[in-house]
Amino acid sequence: MVNITFLNVSIPKNVINETLQVLNRTREGPVTISNAPEVPMWLQHALLAIYFALLALAILLMMHYIYYARHARPASGDPPDPPSDVPLSIIIPVKNEATETVVNAVRRLAQLRCPNAEVVVVSDDPPEKAAELEKALAGLPARVLRRPNPTGYKGAALNWAVEHARGEILLFLDVDSVPPPDLCARARAVGEREIAFLGWDGYAAVKTPIAALQLFLYKYLLYYVAILGRYNTGHPVFALGSGIAVRKRFLREVGGFCNCTADDYDISMKAYLSGGRVVYLPGPPVYVEVPAGYGAFKRQYARWTYNSAYLLAQYARQILKLKMPLAHRLSVFLNVATHPLMILTTFATMVATVAMSYMGILLPPFHILAMQGGLLALALAQTFYVYKLAKPDGHGFAEVASMLAKSAALLLALSPYLTFYVLLGLLRRRIRWYVTPKGLAVLKSGALGPYEVATTSALAALLALSFYTANWLFITNAATLLLVFLYVYLRVAAAAKPS
């Protein structure tokens, strides 16, 4: 016999009664602190209405994520057995890449079983650099083609390479991609009016805190949820920039890649709008290098955020007219809009929270309080489902919660910077293309720059203002924000020694 005793916890009745009385007051309006400044009621109501709308958007995005997380499991299917005699061209665009990086990419492909295929390296480098590449690749199965007029974005280079490729089927890879063993067989399985995507996972050439965080997010949020979750529910998927296969005839029919930074999502939208589709072909994913430097990550994430906003501005009306079920149209919209909405809600919620603390709003009205509780419950559910995905790989619940908390802190710290790129994308303004540095070169990008100094200074000034107002709620919020930003800059974004 084992006697089990439980700890008796007694809560005084007056504490319960006072808590219920405070909550009951929220039915009439917000509960404010005693020394709250006087603010016009219309301004307070407007702020609370905006905050309510932001919470609704955040809940929608969280539910959208959890739905696919529940279906995130390895996809099963018979391995493709397409004809091996269909000519295949593997196209790799390069610009300002190290010669060794390009040589290693071709060597990886040379080790695969891939009959009747060619590797085309399309270079936007100066003539002497292209000649150096051609010399370094001598003896390897690859052709180096240099665009005579290397202007525009990556999509323009890909379209030019397509016209010089010999294959009927085209496979597009980034130079840092590690291909799966069945790369060519799965690429040749693409249908006549399809764009095939082979899936993505990440690897890191350098161990840093930002790389470790990205590897976690790539595997359990991108590969498992955004790709496998969508595939298993039968909802539309979108191709990412490496590991895309398409027949040359269909690519020409949809107009090729756009001369913009959002070439991968744009070609996916063109496929759907033309009556075709994007398919995920189950199997080992293409491994792509995650930027291990904070500066490189910030630029890459800004470009991805801009791309989604640009595509949303370009195709928002046409998405509603897609000839597919309503649930699929909603899925396409949320797929495109997730990054812009996530950035805008994060930034706007931060601003609204600071404003409400300045107004002395301790508790918002009951309907907003209920929304906050619902969002917290969904955040816990999200953590639970990610834990279920990560548990077989040896990740504990505390580790998963820590990774998601770091991701949220990083998103919060970058939200002002990324909001600027969202607005550029929605206005369809051009941005400069930065080639993401690879290997040890990422450590040269550094962590702290003008943006980090400016945001830290602004939050320090906000904290000083809060002390001047003697508003303890305002002080608490300003201090918390400053600590989160400093944690990200000094801990999450810290570069480690190369290993």
UniProtKB/TrEMBL annotation:
Record GO cellular component, one term: membrane
Protein's cellular compartments: Membrane
Residue stretches making up the Glycosyltransferase 2-like domain: 170-354
Chief location of this protein within or outside the cell: membrane
Keywords: Glycosyltransferase, Membrane, Transferase, Transmembrane, Transmembrane helix
UniProt keyword Transferase, yes or no: yes
Origin: domain of life: Archaea
Pfam family, one: Glyco_trans_2_3
GO molecular function terms noted in the UniProt entry: glycosyltransferase activity
Membrane topology: Multi-pass membrane protein
Keyword Transmembrane: yes
Residue ranges of the TM segments: 46-67, 340-361, 368-387, 407-427, 472-490
Protein name (record): Glycosyl transferase family 2
Organism in which the protein naturally occurs: Pyrobaculum neutrophilum (strain DSM 2338 / JCM 9278 / NBRC 100436 / V24Sta)
